[in-house]
Amino acid sequence: FSSEACVGRLYNRLNADYGLLHSLCYFFLSETGPTHQVGERAMLPFLVDMARLYERFVALWLKQRLEPRYVVKIQEHQTLGAGAGVSFKIDIVALDPTTGTVRCVFDTKYKVPDSGPDNADIYQAVAYATLMHASEAILIYPVELAFPLDIQVGDIRVRSLTFALEGDLEAAGGAFLRGLGAAEASRSA
Q1: What pTM, to 2 d.p., does this model score?
Q2: Nearest Cα to 155, choosing from 178, 121, 132, 177?
Q3: How far is it, in rounded angstroms, from Cα 88 to Cα 54?
Q4: How far apart are CA 12 and CA 176, in angstroms?
Q5: pLDDT tens digits, residue range 88-128?
Q6: 113 or 43: whose pLDDT is higher?
Q7: pLDDT over 90 for what percent of the chain?
Q8: Which of 93, 67, 74, 58 is nearest to 175 (CA)?
């Protein structure tokens, strides 16, 4: 179907429910972009949770590229204490397939910090790594940080890496994997 199939339709009480759906279909089929200005077409407002979309994209991309070398778990749910009501959802966990031990936890951050990672992000990554007994926690950002992070907190190495959304995503993913490989090489040295 072309985008034109979604416009100029006649609606009555029996098919009026399709009007908004046709507007949304027109938006995607015509490859138009949203704007805050009033346009010539009716549109169903919608919201895209970009942080969640970025998290899912990176997680699924990593799952495809890291397995079978690692077992990749997405949205690993961990509860602390019986009845305490404290739980964590860790974005991405990479496990050694032979031993089942957690090698690394990843936390995606769809934001652009002014300089480097926020303290709260670092605390969160350390908590995840501690909970999962991982030796490494990686914060993943969509842009290169002015001051990338590479610190040791006790037995946990906390780093920031970039999975850029600008340009070719495969190239950005390759750069991310090279950064991840550098992290692994320095950890085993």
Answers
A1: 0.76
A2: 132
A3: 19
A4: 53
A5: 899 999 999 999 999 999 999 999 888 889 999 999 999 99
A6: 113
A7: 59
A8: 58
Closest CA to 134 of 161, 107, 116: 107
pLDDT interval class at 7 (50, 70, 90):
confident
Gyration radius of the chain's alpha carbons: 22
Helix (H, G, I), strand (E, B) or coil at 55: helix
Residues forming beta bridges with residue 71, ordered by sequence position: 95
Return the ∠ at Cα 143 (arms to 142 and 149), rounded to 5°. Answer: 100
Residue 55 in tokens: 């998290």
What pLDDT shows up at residue 31?
Answer: 77
Identify which of 49, 75, 54, 66 has the alpha carbon closest to the alpha carbon of residue 141: 54
- Whole-angstrom distance, CA of residue 50 vs CA of residue 26: 22
Beta carbons of 143 and 167 less than 8 angstroms apart: no
Q: Which residues pair with 78 in a beta bridge?
A: 88
Torsion angles phi and psi, residue 79, rounded to 5: -110, 140
What CA–CA distance (Å, rounded) separates 123 from 153?
Answer: 10
Provide the residue type at 55 as one letter.
E
